Amino acid sequence: MQKGNDLIISVDGAALAASKSCGVDMNVDTKEIALAGAGTSKSYIAGRVSWSITTNHLVGDTDKVEDMLKRVGKVFELSVNMRSSPDAEKNMRGMAICTQCKITGTRGSLIQGSFTWKGTGPLE
């Protein structure tokens, strides 16, 4: 069984440390087509693929909040790795733009950073 702490997201080659949660979302657009003999059933073909990655992690001493906020609107190379996979050295990589950065802190707690990245090409 794979566990959540085995999913590692890296930005420009640096793993996001102290990750609390992360996720990868892949979608494909579909196009309705007409098939002879399909009767009243709908048929579809796959269209364009899109993907996004979300992360939520603790902000460490070496992270600078100002630098994190400056990521918004910039393109980075992201990689996705399942550490417990038999092909652990095989990362999926793709270029993505940072579309959201949220830094939150509660008095007495560690600062958290969450990011949303949208793919600008394939995730391979």
Structure, explained:
With about 120 residues, the chain is mainly beta. The protein contains 1 helix and 7 strands, in the order E-E-E-E-H-E-E-E. It has a 7-stranded antiparallel β-sheet with strand order 2-1-5-6-7-4-3. The longest helix is centred in the middle third of the chain and has 5 residues. The protein is elongated and about 65 Å long.
In terms of topology, how is this protein built?
Blueprint: E1 7-11, E2 14-15, E3 19-33, E4 43-58, H1 65-69, E5 75-82, E6 92-104, E7 112-119
What are the salient characteristics of this protein?
single chain; 124 residues; mainly beta; 7 strands; elongated
Q: How many H/I helices?
A: 1
Average pLDDT number? 84
Going by helix content, strand content and strand pairing, the class is mainly beta
- Compute the CA-based radius of gyration: 18 Å
Low-confidence residue ranges: none
The largest sheet is:
7 strands, antiparallel
Instruction: Order the strands across the largest sheet as they lie in space.
Output: 2-1-5-6-7-4-3
Write a brief caption for the model.
The protein is mostly beta strands and 124 residues long.
